[in-house]
Amino acid sequence: MLKIKIFFSIVLFSLTLSSCGDENKEKAELNSSSRPKIALIMKSLANEFFVTMADGATAHQSANRDKYDLIVNGIKNETDLAQQVNLIDQMISAGVDAIVIAPADSKAIIPALARVRDADIKVINIDNQLDKNILDQYELSIPFVGPDNFIGAKKVGDYLAEQLNAGDQVAILEGVTTAYNSQQRTAGFKKAMEDGGFGLVADQSADWDQTKAVSVTSAILIQYPKLAAILCANDSMALGAVAAINQAGKAGKVKVVGFDNIPAVRQLLENGTLIATADQHADLLAVYGIEYALEMIGGTNDLTDRATPVDLITRDNLNFK
User: Fold this and answer.
1) What CATH number is given to the structural domain containing 17?
2) 6 in a structural domain
3) Whole-structure pTM value
4) pLDDT above 90 for 230
């Protein structure tokens, strides 16, 4: 069961929209402090990756409570763009100094971020990179702090390739297709499979969702009974793929890899059910963004992107941290 630690020194907004009275109360509390106010806006807290991210951010603020105040927000599911836009507008109204955001969509969220810019609020993009062309259309310069998803997926795909035979059939489960990180992970997987000479027979989206991954994988297994492996763009979908494989009576016959290294896949890595995943260090990703935001609030005008680590995780190095 997922657990979210609540730190009473941090303002934690409800995942559902607040009433006007609640918004005014939060705004008054924020404005009473002279410390910078930073809002972390994530995607779905039903995903352990973002729970870990929230825990890392709150722990960092707790250790630096004299430097800044933190608001932690998340949406109900990965695709609820409207709710994420509403959270952005709430943070503008609350008068925060900076927003660190893992956008649900790389393009559609940008008009809301233009309003953030117009309110003279700093913005840092983490996890899922915003579309450069759309940013240019809105004359926005927003730095990205995060890993190279192509490289991370390529590492995972290359490791899987070592476990396959020439000509094996493979499938890919993508995340939300308009999300840049999903596009880059898919591209990294494809490159690894092409380099290895494997046949990509299916490339379908399961929207980062475990339940949807079960149904998508089940259909793929029926259509391609000789399928040898499934590459999943996040670990939630990998969990769904494993469940579908077990339901089809093909446990141990179809290899699965994922991305994110969430706690729920640890046992699957240990017993070999999941071949590999990638760790982009969720506990530190928001912290990197927060630290950059503090620099910007302090007057730093350097708006260059900053790369963060992404590591291949297998049973052999599961405890490397």
Assistant:
1) 3.40.50.2300
2) no
3) 0.85
4) yes
